[in-house]
Amino acid sequence: MLSKSKISFINSLKIKKYRDIHQQFIAEGSKLVMELLRSSYVIKEVYATAPWIIESDQSIVPGTLPVYEIGDWEMAKITCLSSPSPVFALVEIPNPRKSMRDPGSDLVLILDDIRDPGNMGTIIRIADWFGIETVICSENTVDLYNPKVVQATMGSIARVTVIYENLELFLQQLSDKIPVYGTFLGGENIYGKNLDNKGVLIIGNEAYGISREIEKYVTERLFIPSFCSFESEDHKPDSLNASVATAVVCSEFRRRIIR
């Protein structure tokens, strides 16, 4: 049974201040928890319903971590979800990832003040799908360990390296030979543009796009054209969601590799 103090402690981790103090974050859902169990993340405690424990006993080595059985009503007191999952884990926040000074021969995502947790988590999942191993975030981008971000990654948090940096300093140190891509309404049509298989791709803030401070470092301006059939400009969508735009651009980059 969960004590009142334990419930209070777990619920405090929904707030960044207390995640920073205790260096722990929340993970919910069978897929997410199992992905983290197979990763380098350190699981501190697992709380689960009896059916989940029975089904998962072959996946958890006895004695390797504490697994506590709790009821559905107790899970409802600590969950971040509208419908509680059968398993809930407390995970240790690892030491901050070291700065990345050169993208080398691969594609790297840069997030310029992404604020929506769902977008952030989905972008990490997209990066994982398209084999992008590193995501570099501005210092004002939403916290990686926000429960909604963690949930939206669907386990990709275990495979993608996420680094928080001063983006201007990072971009200033890039080699002139490394292309810096960004999406703009006044950019070149991405479907007719020559794309390199390495470089950095900047994804801008949901409301304001790429900031002026960061825009000056973009060397290749891309545009995702709309194929909307409405003749009137007033009836056309004005933009894509940040995570959707990320998926479109990443897909086009990877398509060039295999064609």
How would you portray this structure in words?
It is a single chain. With 259 residues, the chain is an alpha/beta fold. The chain folds into two domains: 4-92, 60s Ribosomal Protein L30, Chain: A; 107-258, SPOUT methyltransferase, trefoil knot domain (Alpha/beta knot, 3-Layer(aba) Sandwich), CATH 3.40.1280.10. The chain is built from ten helices and ten strands. It has helices at residues 4-12, 16-22, 30-37, 50-56, 72-78, 117-129, 147-153, 167-172, 212-215, 242-258, and strands at residues 24-28, 43-48, 67-69, 87-92, 107-111, 134-138, 161-165, 180-189, 199-203, 220-223. A six-stranded parallel sheet has the order 7-6-5-9-8-10. Strands 1-4-2-3 form a four-stranded mixed sheet. The longest helix has 17 residues, at 242-258.
